[in-house]
Amino acid sequence: MSDAARWPRYPGEDELAFFHFAPDDPFIGPPPQGDVLSDPSDETAEGFLTALLPKGAAWGTSDNQALDPLSVLARFWRVIGSAFADAYRALFGVTLESTAVTLVNSLDDWEIEYGLPDPCLGPDQTIDARMRSLLLKIRSGGTITPADFIKLAADAGYAISIEEPTPFRMGGSAMGGTEALGGGYPSEYVWIVKVPGVSVDHFRMGVGRMGETPLGKLGLPDDLVCLFNALKPAWTTVIFAA
Length: 242
Known about the structure:
Elements: E1 2-5, E2 16-19, H1 42-50, H2 72-96, H3 107-113, H4 127-139, H5 146-155, E3 161-163, E4 190-194, E5 200-202, E6 216-218, H6 222-231, E7 237-241
Parallel strand pairs: 4-7
Antiparallel strand pairs: 1-2, 3-4, 5-6
Helix pairs in contact: 1-2
């Protein structure tokens, strides 16, 4: 969380507002959501009800004594309280379904809303993989800067770096420098995604075929390549490297 100045949105509001950003660690879970009413025990719910009873000997509370928990009256209200406890748990469960990081029973509905399963991640997935796909889909909205794509890759479980080559310009660049000459793509629209640790399948004489087998093929993760090609700005070209 960081602070930034902006115009007030209503009279009396301070000009210093807070903006929330996605957590740096994608594996940080949601903060605790529950309270005493989110999962009350039968005894707790009973206490809410018996506290409303009149006081006196007829109600088992003579001289302001606590109600005997083994009495018929206490056990009766404990049964009634268990239904209230179930209702509180169900109502709290509804609130959990309102966010993707806390949902329990509405995963199918969320997937329909976001057009999942994603073809990049395959149709046959475990519950954990489906949850991960949903979070990736939600967090991929507005992905356009290199930092956005690095964060998206981290959410998918990959540590990458992105390089944007500087195009060679006559009169401004030096021969032998680091500027790119371009090649088959205009270098100002190219960005290089470096995925460390991937395997490299080199061309082998007697095995590879000229015109068919590449000189060096990277063992890139298919889901990462598919995600980036689907979300990259349309006017750009992504080149993957090790």
